[in-house]
Amino acid sequence: MKFDLKKFRMHYGFHKQKDFADKVNYQAPVISRMEKDEQGKPVSDKLLIAIENAFQVNLDQFKRYDRNKLGLYRDNVLPADFFQERITTKQGGGSHKENDNLKQQLIGLLEEKSALDNKYFVLSKQQHQKTVDLALLQEQLSLIRKLTDDSQQILERLLASEKIPL
């Protein structure tokens, strides 16, 4: 699945590329080129991350698309045979066993990085939700205070008009 930048931009009410570019901290000509898709390239992960940060959305599925298209990633983890095809042993270099060990270490580190990336995304999403919840609570508190003040004034007026002692 390919990310449709123009459709996303329009969905969020940015009818001008410049306004959208400002929101994601990019230059308008870059956004224009990405939307035209002149070279058939998918939207860069860097731009997708900028969009995620600006709009608090998750676009990982589109980042995986870029990597899957290249055959590099599957479910955010490199396949075990990835290095078998792409890394060759240099003549006069380390032993085949050393290279295999290094390959396995690299795969393990990449898997750990992927897991940490996923945890970071979950935590940042939770933090965003807590921020939204806090803002809602503050708004509710403000409304309750206003309601209390209004109720107090109404009660005082009623008491004054009926001369009821407290």
From TrEMBL:
Protein name: HTH cro/C1-type domain-containing protein
SUPFAM superfamilies reported in the protein's UniProt record: lambda repressor-like DNA-binding domains
Stretches assigned to the HTH cro/C1-type domain: 17-62
PROSITE patterns xrefs: HTH_CROC1 (PS50943)
Species name: Rurimicrobium arvi
